[in-house]
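Thread: quick sanity check before group meeting

JM: Hey all, I'm pulling together slides for Thursday and realized we never actually wrote out the predicted structure for the chain we discussed last week. Dropping the sequence here so it's in one place. If anyone has concerns about the input, flag it before I start.
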Amino acid sequence: MNPDQKQNRRYFLQNGAFAAAAVASGKVMADTQAPAEHHNDEGQHQIKDEYDGFSRYKPSRGNDPDGDYYLGKLMPGFRSVDAGPAPFVAPDLHKLPHKIVNGAKEFHLVPQEVTQEFLPGNPMRVWGFNGSMPGPSIEVTQGDRVRIIVHNELPEETTVHWHGFELPVQHDGAFTMTQNPIKPGKSFVYEFDVHEEGSFFYHTHIPMQEAFGMVGWFIVHPRKVFDPPVDRDFGLIFQNFHIKPNQTISDSWSMDWNWHTINGRSGPFTTPLVVKHGERVRVRLMNFAPMQHHPIHMHGHTFWVTQHEGARIPKSAWIPRNTELVGVAQASSFEFIANNPGDWMFHCHMTHHMMNHMVKHVGPRMRVGENVDAYLANLDARPPIDLTREDKGFETPGYPQGMKGMSMSDDSMKALWKRREVKGMRASVMMSVKGLMTAMRVLPEDLYHQVMETDKNIAKGAIFEEIVKRFGVPSTYEKTPMMKMDMMQGEMK
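JM (edit): ok, ran it. Output follows.
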């Protein structure tokens, strides 16, 4: 089979049949599939492989830039409009449950101190909601009436602001301006009708509390499902913290940051987004950093910016991009056709945000009375590190410094690799994904089934190598060196 034939193979069968693939002795074995036509259950529209020169199953620049299907712009997913919105998924965060009480969707939200592992073995004391930082996602439909009962378990007063909503002024949550603060141990009831649709969020309206992490998604699905509908709907929250070495509490007064998180985790502990080859995918981005913007770049695909936090952008104004700048307290959404299989980096392009814990705390620092050249010539005899911070020679310990998160224990590595979403990725992926970074995994259906729907053991790199075999140039592929890497521990087999 030539490479073009491999790329044209079909991996998505709507009727429930998929390629049989077995994992034996750590090796992925894949069967071929014949092309098939796709129809949704209602028979409303035909799902085709190609629309006006754009293929959903292989990389393509499309055809006419003025056409509806240029770069997959209006290419439909596999999901029917009548099926309702695709389930919203914010990896590593849960959804806040509700009950219908007197015609309103009633939620219970609890501001409280939270212990959050940014990386395995690195618990941080932050503030959030309902045991989570960021808080749980609230999900409603345009036109709903919502009632949110906030019970304050913080050691100080707070309020909750519903960012971007048009609501009665007394329920806006602006500290002291529109309501009295909620005292510790007390509750306040917010109630309003949701008129808008879009990617909103809630957060405390006390700045130092915001810097401690108090935010969560508030997703409002439109009354009428957007067309073309998406098959996947993800949400990512970006945050920055300054936590000094040997401490677990963020310095909310700091003007720089050394911990960068996505949904409360720092790479490589961030959870990859896994989709099927050919699906239409939406990703909602929200920046809750104290004061830094995030240019978010996804490798391997061109996407269309379709929405900001206010509402859906008219299709005529959608922008094709591969990097979207998300400002502080902004949300932005993009959509794309997952037409290029692989494990693709997905990250902020601010250089120091791609190198977790590398702001201020890195590198050889001058020490009073020490010779740098002599020190670098004999790293095994480095000066002792003063962890009491009483050394007048430099502000932060280390020379150069052993940074939190840059050295992984065996237990940490086990925690990183036990996640279903990373099965079959290259062994070196834990070295490449740092800080405000994750991955977008585009997998043919049979490989998606192995990774996300079975508990079979898959050797590190096996899924990636199979994708290279099918879609790349196997003769030029170099496997991960089987060696212990300098900046991490753990078994790399």
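AS: nice. The radius of gyration is 24 Å. The first strand starts at residue 21 and ends at 24.
JM: adding both to the slides.
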